[in-house]
Each structure stands twice: as structure tokens, then as C-alpha cells.
Predict the structure.
Amino acid sequence: MSAPSPMSGPAPWLGPEHEAFRRALRTVVERELAPHADEWEEAGIFPREIYTLMGKLGYLGLRYSPDYGGAGLDFWYTLILAQELVQCGSVGTAVGLLAHMEFALSVIDARGTPEQKAEFLAPAIRGEKIASIGITEPGAGSDVGALRTTARRVGGDWVINGAKTFITNGTRADFISLVARTGEPGPKGLSVIIFPTDTKGFRVGKALRKMGSHASDTAELFFDDCKVPLRNLVGEEGKGFGYIVDHFKGERLVISAFALGVMDRLWQEGTRYAAERQLFGQPLGKFQAWRHRLADVRTIIEAARQLTCWACDRLNRDAPDASLAVSMAKLFTCEQVKHVANEVFQLHGGYGFIEEYPVCRLYRDVAGFTLGAGTSEIMREIIAREEQI
């Protein structure tokens, strides 16, 4: 049994330039990342030099202004980047790179001053500095309005106290796009502050051991009377919640693209195994039960692709329904990739339980997709609210 990759053919939204970008990127992934994926997953981190490499190749600033080293491209290129990076065999590497370039930098690009962009955005686009975004806390995840880390004005500084957890790139970030409370309780009291990690009083608690995405470092962070200049405030004081809500649309679409890329890999692994595995004198894929289950998988992947592409189109246009579209895409793709992973895992039988087989790693990696950037429950709430249910 063989079939084309569901993500490799032209789509009605994509032009020849997008497909040329995909082909060039795929070559980089196959040559520079894939050969080292097992090593990085085992080590629990990928080398810092990968940021430098991807920066030199122009992949870390796709959406950002050429004034600061970016390419000034639309979101389709970021979508393709996320899909292709997971093909390297290390979802964690893809997560670390996108957490840097999209999750952490987008708010600085959108709201930062020229001075902030020159000091932080430009070197991050070049891969010289690693960025992280600091939102989640031990007592506040989906409820962003309940964040408790504080930033008080003292003279010419912000004095920051609190803790963050589940922070991707947290063990080695050079700066953090930090969400902290500068005012009253609730969403209106939050601001975004650029926090250099060489600040006195800051420490990394520990690197967290995760179920999947092993090559992306994830950490607890602690802030004890840390002083950073008032000029590190991003945008306006008290507007941080709105900035993060806007930022989440891009982050959620990236995770949808991760899920699509993993589905693509699972499809390739599943159809190859179904063609090669002999059972009762014929390929496993010749049995009607598995042919039909794989047909369902293929249908799910195409439905997820169309929904995600529609969401990307709405986000690119800054359409009024962009949040609705992105929430639908993340909900559907991230729930369905778990189903697809389970089907391909079951197809592999005992081999799916063995680390040497890619499906084993992918089965673990997709577990977190329904959590990051807003859980499936939050996506359903957004959809219900937007539809006035």
C-alpha cells in the first residue's frame, strides 16, 4: 500500500513560492536535523547551535520586519515551517524552535519599541539569543487573568517576584517575554515585560521531565526581587492580557500545524507498515478491517488540513472570525492526532510499543497538544462564546 503525503501536494491557498519554500526547508530538515533526532531526544535537549543555524538560514524571523532581520512573509510560511520541522523525528526540537520564534517573539514584534526590537528581536531572529515566553504559573494556566507574578515600579525599575512553570526553553533562554501583574487583580492588571535572564535574583528551579517532546527543555522559573528597567515594558501597562489573547491565535495555529505534520508522519509510517507486514500470507493492509480504518485516518487528516488552512487564511486576513477559526482548528487537529496516533500504534501491534519505531515516540509526543496554548476545554469555550451558544 502506498499513498502520497497528505501535506505535500499543492493546496488552493498556496502558491508556487510556498511550495518552493517547503522543498528547500525539507532538505534542511533531512540533512541537518533528522540524522541527530534520536541523540537529541535521548539527551533531553537539542544543541544551541541549531538556533544559530536556523537564524543564518532565515527561518527564525519569517513573519517579522526586514528592518530587524526578518523576511516579512505571511503566516503560511510559519505554518509550513511547523509542519516540516516535526518531520525530523524530534517533535521537541520543533517545539523549542517555534516557542522561540513565534511564541516568544511575536508580542515584541507587534508591540515593542524600535529600541526593544533592536536589542532583543534582532539577535533572536539571528539565533544569537534564545527567547522564551513566561505565562503559566503553578496556580494559573488556562486562567491567564489569575496570574500572580508581580512587577512593582520602584524608581526606574520593575521589581519582579513570583514563579512560572512549564516554560519551554526555560533552562537556557537569554530573555523571557514575561507576563506579570503590574496593577489590579484580574485581566486588566497584567503587562508584558522583557526579562533578561542574567538579572540578579532569577533562577531556574529544575528542568521538568515530560511524557513527550523530550528534546525541548521545559523548566520552573523563580523571580526574587528581580530588577529590570521600566523601558522593558512591551506596549502599554495593563494591556498585557489583550496582547496575550492576540498572541495565542498564532501559537494555537502553530500547534495545529504540528499536529498536521505528525499526522502526515503517522500516515507514512502506517501505510508503509501495512504494506510490509505479512499476516496469514498477505500484507496487513489487504485486510478489510485495516483498509477501512486507514481510510478513516486519511479522511481525518484531510479534514484537519482543510480546517487548519481555512484558519490560517482567516488569521492572515485579520478577519473578525479568526479567533473562532483558529480555536476550531486547534480543537479538531489536536484531538484527532491522538486518535490517528492510536490507530497507527494499534496497527503496529507490539512493534508500536518499541522505542526504535517512530510511532512509539509520536504516540507520546502528541499527548501535550491538547494542553498547550489553551486546553481543548478552553477551545470549546471560545467556540461556544463566539457562536453565542
The chain is about 50% helix and 15% strand. The chain has three domains: 16-125, 131-238, 241-386.
